[in-house]
Amino acid sequence: MSAYNAIPSIPIAVTSEDETVSVTAPATCPSGYTFEVVVNGVVKTVQVPAGGVNKGDEFQAIVVSSGGGGVFSLSDNAPNGRWRDGLCSCCKYGPCHPMFMLALCLPQVLMAQVMTRMKLSWLGNPADLDEWKKTYRNVWLVIVSYFVLKMIFAVPVEVDEDGMVVPKDDEDPRIIVGYVINISYFLYTLYAMAQARKYIRDRYNIPEQRCYGCEDYVCSFCCGCCTIAQMANHTADYDIIRATCCTATGLPDSIDVESYA
Q1: Kind and range of the H or E element at 229?
Q2: Which one of 60, 108, 206, 232 is CB 3.0 to 4.6 Å from 201, fit for a cystine?
Q3: Residue 20: helix, strand or coil by DSSP?
Q4: What pLDDT was estimated at residue 67?
Q5: Euclidean distance between CA atoms 82 and 106, whole angstroms
Q6: How far apart are the first and last CA of the chain?
Q7: CA dist., res. 227 & res. 99, Å (int)
């Protein structure tokens, strides 16, 4: 059975009073591991009984919540010493998976979700409760500010004789302002993503494999979408729990983040 690094949910034994459902284990899970299943159209949070299960085992899972009404912790089964998936595994769950869509279209949002899971600040550094609880909101403020500033300092354009879109006035000062806005947004994303990736590597004892000393920045610079997808895959087992687009962690509200990371 795989090693589990975070403190898992408290294992419980099945009693005659517990509601159980028949489940096929989606992965190897330890005692007390919680995940979601759909039974007759109803989402239920179930817990693995004492002894744990192996992937593919059929077992009687204990129902701890039905219909998404409660909040329960999710044991952290991220691998230690290696990444769960490769850097180019962002399409592992298909093009319609929320994680992939965010990585492709709004990587900063997925970055905010990963940083919230790991209790990091909006700059990707370890933070106290009051600060990391605001990480998702703060990153959204950065994103919205970027697009608002881009609209405010937008440069009028026209199509030249070669069919190219060019500024109407090459000396318009808003061109320089636009460059500054773009570079600032890029540098923020690069720094926060690299810091968060380094934290994840340190937490799970994942060594650098290339570009020693600067791998986190190189990966974030060369392919931020693939890098943040790898980080999201490592910090959430999407084989067991579904991804969501619009929560602070990218996980269902039934996941207790304070005991998750």
Answers
A1: helix 224-235
A2: 206
A3: strand
A4: 54
A5: 26
A6: 20
A7: 12
Q: Tell me the chain's radius of gyration from C-alpha atoms.
A: 22
Tokens 């109407």 -> residue: 168
Rounded to an integer, what distance in angstroms lies between the CA atom of residue 64 and that of residue 66? 7
Q: Which amino acid is at 252?
A: P
- Tens digits of residue pLDDT in 92-101: 888 899 999 9
CA distance 108 to 137: 12
- The structure tokens listed for 44 are 């239920």
Residue appearing with tokens 């060369």: 222
pTM score, two decimals? 0.71
- Give the phi and the psi of residue 15 in degrees, each rounded to 5: -120, 170
Hey, CA dihedral for 53, 54, 55, 56, is it positive or negative?
negative
| Structure-token pair, residue 70 | 């409660």
Would you say 114 and 232 are in contact if contact means Cβ atoms under 8 Å apart?
Answer: yes
- Measured distance CA(112)–CA(140) in Å, rounded: 8
115: nearest Cα among 104, 127, 97: 127
The number of residues making up the chain comes to: 261
Mean pLDDT, consecutive 10-residue stretches, the chain (261 aa), reads 36 55 80 72 75 84 63 59 88 90 94 93 91 94 96 88 82 91 97 96 90 92 93 87 87 69 51
Angle made by CA atoms 244, 43, 95, in degrees to the nearest 5: 35
- Residue 218: how many CA atoms within 13 Å on its side-chain side? 9
